[in-house]
Amino acid sequence: MTETKGGPATTGRKSAARDRLLTTASRLFYTEGIRAVGVDRVMAEADIARGTFYRHFDGKDDLVRGYLDATDQDIRARVAVAAERTGGGAALLDVVAHSIGEQICGPGFRGCPFINAAAEYPDRGCPIHQAVLTHREWFRQLLEDTLATMGVADPRQSADLVVALRDGAMVAGYLGDSRSAARTLVQGVGLVVASG
Questions:
Q1: Distance CA 175, CA 191 (A)
Q2: What CATH number is given to the structural domain containing 168?
Q3: Locate the HTH tetR-type domain: which residues (predicted)?
Q4: What mean pLDDT is reported for the chain?
Q5: How many CB atoms lie within 10 A of CB 183?
Q6: Cα Rg for the chain, rounded, in angstroms?
Q7: Global pTM?
């Protein structure tokens, strides 16, 4: 759980109301954009009273952080399962690339939620932008660590290449041919692994 400026969201409480707010916010923020969706709409669609909202979140920025943190935690959990199943290494990177490719080709794909959030909150000092950077650094470090265990000569540079491939595929998949973007990502990650 992320820390906020001391508001109720720091308690780490789980509740059905909080889950409904996050689920509704996640859907609306991703499909329509964060700044385009107000807290009143999230509360209305989640069927949550204002008082209940403020018991769980300090305000909209705290809700946005909750959305990004929940998205981050979901991705981390899926990667952990994939790492356990594959044993890591090249097999893990292949699963990650294919999983991102499936996401790109999935219905309702609207790009990377973190890149989208960073575009709406460009100030690097903003807690929302910081949440984006935290997720991206975790992902890049995961790649670097995985590549290092495989004996890749320059795991840092190779990790940066995979992140760039992923970012490009996310944008290309949203703006163009999603299947081509997914294939390019998988092939690109395979080339990075093979050239290491």
A1: 24
A2: 1.10.357.10
A3: 15-75
A4: 93
A5: 15
A6: 18
A7: 0.89
The per-residue b/e assignment along 62-72, b for 16 or more CB within 10 angstroms, e otherwise, is bbbbbbbbebb
pLDDT above 70: residue 111: yes
Q: Which tokens is 166 given?
A: 């992923």
Residue 21 lies inside a defined structural domain of this protein: no
Note whether residue 165 is domain-resident.
Answer: yes
- Domain span holding position 189: 60-195
Predicted confidence (pLDDT) per residue in 161-170, tens digit: 999 999 999 9
Give how far Cα 142 sits from Cα of 40, 48, 149, 169, 173, Å.
37, 37, 11, 19, 23
Q: Is the pLDDT of residue 6 over 50?
A: no
Q: Is residue 71 part of a domain?
A: yes
pLDDT at residue 9 tops 60: no
- C-alpha 115/C-alpha 50 separation (Å) is 29
Q: How many domains does the chain have?
A: 1
Identify whether 45 is part of a domain. Answer: no
